[in-house]
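Need tokens for this chain, all 393 residues.
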Amino acid sequence: MKEKDNITPEHDKGVHVPSPSRRSWREFLFLKRIDTYIISKFLGTYFFSILLIIGVTVVFDYNDNIDKFTQNGAPWRELMIYYLNFMPYYANLFSSLFVFIAVIFFTSKLAGNSEIIAILSAGVSLRRLMRPYLISAALIALLTLWLGSEVIPRGSVERLAFENQYKRRGNKKNPTYADNVQLQVDTGVIAFIEHFDGPSKTGYHFQLDKFEHKRLVSHMTAQSVTYDTLSNERFHWHIKDATIRDMRGMRERITHYPQLDSVIVMEPSDFLFTHDFQETMTNRELKEHIERARIRGTGNLKPFQVEYYKRFASAFAAFIMTVIGVSLSSRKRKGGMGFSLGVGLVLSVTYAFLQAVTAGFATNANVPPLLAVWLPNILFTIIAIYLYKQAPR
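Here are the structure tokens for all 393 residues:
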């Protein structure tokens, strides 16, 4: 009889009661009405703030540069394309700030209407309340990473070309030549160009040395090499007036070629770095460039490493700013959202300032790029954890 009394009604009727662990997983996988409500408010406020602030930014930028556009004869079609590329670039650049503003605005409104108090009083923990916020942050982080990795770099080619021609004309000129270029183009293969002319993509006084077991086995000298931009094959070069010396033991063979076509794993972009060139490369291109430059021992590699790591760090910042925003604005205050917005803006500006400073340390000082780029995220993750623990429950 005692065992009979301990049987719950659910077991008596043959109903399966899920274990607490299974129940928690089901709750995590399925969205409730409160989840869809918060996600829609979060994403709606985020995109609305982006459209509003970027629209104002475009108006101010056009008013500031209208004289330059007129003097330099910027066509309207190119101007429209420029601002179409301008908007996603700056929206992505300040995405973490827009995330914070969106969280502060609608969460402070929820707290002001006592909705946060009602949710917590109904038995919903702050940890459970954070779930739709983090889902929204994950969607924004993925969108930010995709735009920064694939879409914006392709648009930056036209954007930077327009700025160099119509906005910064005469102020910043891209390099058109390089002197005394030396780089490793393959394992044991060293190329040297005494002078490279950018517009014609031609290098003069070219040398190509091949080593095996630290011994020189082949030495080529040529009057000039020209990069073939019309060829479908990458790294295709036309070599003029080439002399090749093959050295095998005590024997040496000299061969002369008036014209020679060859595949040499180097491009003009490997030694002509234009202004902000790294911003025009996708993640795959950046990774290939960094690995190739590492093998060759090419200098000036840190700006490319900083750009590569910064794209992932900027996407992760959406989670940090979301946690900080919720922790600051979930408490109902007499002054409304003013205090939360003020503290949050100070933190956001500090975060952006630290990003710029640490990136400068990586580029100009002996600081590892990965550590320099992620240092602001590490510091603000600690701040986010502290504020989360202080938030009302």
